[in-house]
Amino acid sequence: MNKKDQAELKKHFTQSDDLMTVRRISTTFIDSEKQMRCHSVRSYPEIPDEELFCLYQSLAKVLKGTLGKSLIEYPFPNEMYEEDKSQNLLWNTLEKGLDDEEQLQKLIDHISANMDYALPYALFIAECVYTVFEKNKFGEKNKYDSREYRFLIGAVCPVESRVDGLIYDEENNSIVRKTEFDRVVADSPTDGFLFPTFTGRGPDVNHVMYYTKNPKNPNVSVVEEVFGCHYTLSALEEKETFRAVLDKAVGEELNLNVIASVNEKIQDYAKSFKDEPEPPVVSDIMMRDILMDSGVTQERAEAAQQLYRETVDGNYFAASNLTDSRTTLSSSGVTVSISGDASDKITTRMIDGRKFLMISLDDPEVTVNGFQMKIQ
After folding, report:
1. CA 220: distance to chain centroid?
2. Where would I find the beta strands (DSSP E) of the chain?
3. For the segment 216-261, what is each residue's pLDDT rounded down to a tens digit?
4. What are the structural domain ranges in the chain?
5. Cα 166 to chain center, whole Å?
6. Up-side HSE of residue 33: CA atoms within 13 Å toward CB?
7. In which residue ranges of the chain is pLDDT below 70?
8. How far apart are CA 372 and CA 350, in angstroms?
């Protein structure tokens, strides 16, 4: 599933779209003890408009993540199609429909039993159909040639119990402290899924799309225990691993100029693919070449290439996960943040045995905490 496929599906997942039909929606409340407290399955016309709007909001957010960061596609291992395994459960639920209570209950039980979750949560699962029209080489739709893409989309929304302080008591015409708890379902899911994936404008039942609200700290249990897939590194973990490889292999040659140059070259590479459907990755050969172009010796660059190849084992990191929009220098009690186009204004110097950070002030106007600074 690439950016083009995602954009098409996201565009049509609205209440007003004629090509997208939400047949049924399952809503379930799971408490902190993993027990199902309430459950219902309703067809689209049965759901009040106000509630339907909220459900659409939550489910649509699952499709709005960034591929490779908050949206990650996972292949199912072959054994996951065995009886009552994740792929088998999802496929049978899709084939039988959400009105098959026995099959749906198996899927819900599987999710609730295997997902680690600290809070009570609401689990929304929608059974949907998108009518896909064939297009010619000019991108024009053929209204006489279409097929159906049937899919399940799920969202996990935390439920918080709280007392919201003071309220107006209309009956007694007074302002009093609220004493009753409300269980509020968040409209932003922390986790979600799409099955099957929408790949090449059609279904791919051998993959599942996992959504996480927090790419820096995804819920690994959803990937490994619920879906039975092999977890891959998050965007933050890719960046940290990449840094560790450079730090170990390049060593003392990893100076300010090299770091800034590597960041800039990978950014330029990522930008050159911004209109491509597949996000670009940094191969081991590319890493070596970028390092050498940035002033690293061939020996150190090839050492980094070898270590990177062994670390990723063929799963190269996305270029967009490895860069920073700003260069940040930190030392004890001092942090300097520099925008990408100003990194050439910073140099380091060794003077009388002490390390200095030198900032070229080409602009005569310099402010500190909003004050105009006078340079003596």
Report:
1. 13
2. 20-30, 36-43, 71-75, 121-135, 141-162, 166-169, 174-177, 182-185, 191-195, 197-199, 202-204, 207-212, 281-282, 317-318, 326-331, 334-339, 346-351, 354-359, 367-368, 371-372
3. 889 999 999 999 999 988 888 899 999 999 999 999 999 888 988 9
4. 3-232, 236-321, 326-372
5. 37
6. 3
7. 162-164, 179, 181-182, 340-341, 363-364, 376
8. 29
Beta bridge partners of 192: 155, 211
pLDDT in tens, 10-60: 999 999 999 999 999 999 999 989 999 899 999 999 999 999 999 999 999
What confidence score (pLDDT) does residue 325 get?
81
pTM for this entry: 0.77
Asked if 89 and 228 touch (Cβ cutoff 8 Å), the reply is no
* Residues 340, 260: Cα–Cα separation, whole Å: 8
Q: Give me the pLDDT at residue 335, please.
A: 84
Helices (H), 294-358: 298-312
Buried b (16+ CB within 10 A) or exposed e, 222-252: bbebbbbbebbbbbebbbebbeebbeebbee
> Which two tokens mark 152?
């399940």
Task: For 147, list phi and psi in degrees, rounded to 5.
Answer: -145, 165
Residue 59: which residues within 8 A CB-CB, separation 6 or more? 13, 124, 126, 153, 154, 155, 192
